[in-house]
Amino acid sequence: MAEHPDVRRIAGWISKAEHVVALTGAGISTESGIPDFRGPQGVWTKNPRAERLSNIDHYMADPQVRAEVWKARLESPTWSARPAPGHEALAELERQGHLHTLITQNIDGLHQLAGSSPDRLVEIHGTMREVVCMQCGDRGPAQVVLDRVRGGESDPECWDCGGILKSATISFGQPLVDADLRRSEAAAAACDLFLAIGTSLVVYPVAALPQIALDAGARLVIVNGEPTPYDHAADVVITGPIGEVLPAVVSYLS
Ligand code: NAD
């Protein structure tokens, strides 16, 4: 693909900005082989029934749903996925001192694997690399529980209290972690450039973050495969593959 004419302009804005915030969504990880929800090859686009598995009420009420979720976790492409060029580009942006905060809706841990530092990163929808007990709050590594699923437990219980175990992710119907939301809102309110990358910008409250940045006078740049509700308000919208656009932007910076 020929370079998009706005790539150089975005690099110029990044180099002059004092406080850049990036928000990523499932679209940055499709190039790592992890499907998104709402894109053309998305999990929900292909199977609308799958949405039910992401709802906390169904999960807590129905052992059959939990069994389906654990099976899907076991088979997730995430465990063998490697960071894509988009993840690498954001890690490089941080290394160069250009990225203040990286907010991700993704639960796959690929930003850390690419080298983004935990203290700059907000995993606002949690992580599938850990599990949590819904009763006693105990947390631990996901692989230990997945080994139990592999061994035949369809709905493994908490070892300590017998409570329902769940990936340490925010399901639909669950509140966000307050400190994560406040940190993200503060970063958006303080930024002068907000990059929204690979997200349909329809999942609230995260989808309110670009508006917070706009209200604070920041520029908004969107890189996504499809239109978003914020396109009309953005300074630049690039409809193109993240794995080409972000490395091209970073190539103009140092
Ligand atoms: P979404 O599925 O609603 O939207 C993803 C967007 O990315 C789509 O608009 C699609 O056009 C775009 N996209 C896909 N591949 C692209 C590419 N290579 N280049 C440019 N654009 C591309 O995702 P969302 O907005 O993040 O919301 C979905 C929710 O699902 C999030 O809360 C997230 O936690 C969760 N989720 C996470 C993962 C993951 O961790 N990898 C995967 C699926 C869903």
Description:
The structure is a single chain. With 254 residues, the protein is of the alpha/beta class. It has helices at 7-16, 43-46, 56-61, 63-74, 85-95, 110-114, 142-150, 178-190, 209-215, 242-251; strands at residues 20-24, 101-104, 121-123, 126-133, 139-141, 165-169, 193-197, 219-223, 236-238. The radius of gyration is 19 Å and the shape is elongated. Nicotinamide-adenine-dinucleotide binds at residues 25-27, 29-31, 34, 36-39, 42, 105-108, 125, 198-200, 203, 224-226, 241-242. Residues 25-27, 29-31, 34, 36-39, 42, 105-108, 125, 198-200, 203, 224-226, 241-242 line the site of nicotinamide-adenine-dinucleotide.
Protein traits:
254 residues; alpha/beta; Rossmann fold; SIR2/SIRT2 'Small Domain'; 6-stranded parallel β-sheet; 3-stranded antiparallel β-sheet; 34% helix; binds nicotinamide-adenine-dinucleotide
Q: How many domains comprise the coordinates?
A: 2
Treating each run of at least 4 consecutive H or I residues as one helix, how many helices?
10
Helix content: 25-40%
CATH fold title of the largest domain? Rossmann fold
Strand % is 15-25%
CATH architecture of the largest domain: 3-Layer(aba) Sandwich
CATH homologous superfamily designation of the largest domain = TPP-binding domain
Give the topology, please.
Layout lengths: L6 H10 L3 E5 L18 H4 L9 H6 L1 H12 L10 H11 L5 E4 L5 H5 L6 E3 L2 E8 L5 E3 H9 L14 E5 L8 H13 L2 E5 L11 H7 L3 E5 L12 E3 L3 H10 L3
Parallel strand pairs: 1-2, 1-7, 2-3, 7-8, 8-9
Antiparallel strand pairs: 4-5, 4-6
Bound molecules: nicotinamide-adenine-dinucleotide.
